[in-house]
Structure formats: structure tokens, C-alpha cells
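Re: the 104-residue chain
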Amino acid sequence: MAWVILLFAGLSEIGWAIGLKYTDGFTRVVPTVLTVACMTVSVALLGLALKSLPVGTAYAVWTGIGTVGTAILGIILFAEPATAMRLACIGLIVAGIAGLKFAA
């Protein structure tokens, strides 16, 4: 169950990372409120997952999910470049996340 909680924590991290772009420097109220809500949920869920997962593994997986998801959504939503090198690096992060999950 801790891994499921950690997955949702990582997804919430994607929400707040992408949300930051829409806050326009925290000048737009609704995106700012949603971003802060995602931040709160993300950290709270990470805290719950840490009850039974090693901190180094959980933190690395949490940030990895956030990093990969944010990079992919940056490509989709904001037309950021999807170069072969960038996609290969995203693949390496995914491989690292999988490795940490199976090593724990």
C-alpha cells in the first residue's frame, strides 16, 4: 500500500510543478490555490509512505515520478523540445525509479 500512496504523492508533485506555470508568479488565484493544494497533498502522502518505506528510496522515487511526469507534460502542454537526448534521459530516470522500487 505504501507504494500506491507514493505513486499518488508523485502524481500530486506533477500537479504542483505544472501548476506553478499556470500561477503566473502566484498572481492568479485559482491556479495558486490548486498548486498549493497539490503541494500539501504531495508532501502529506510522501509522509505517509515514509512510515514503511526507506527515506532514500521513497524520496528518490517521489522526485523521479515528479521529474518524469513534469518533463513529459512540458513537452505535451508547453511545446518543450522532445529531442532524442531528452527522451533518453527521461528513460534513464524511469529505469532508476524501477530499479529503486525493485531493490527496496
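The mean pLDDT is 95.
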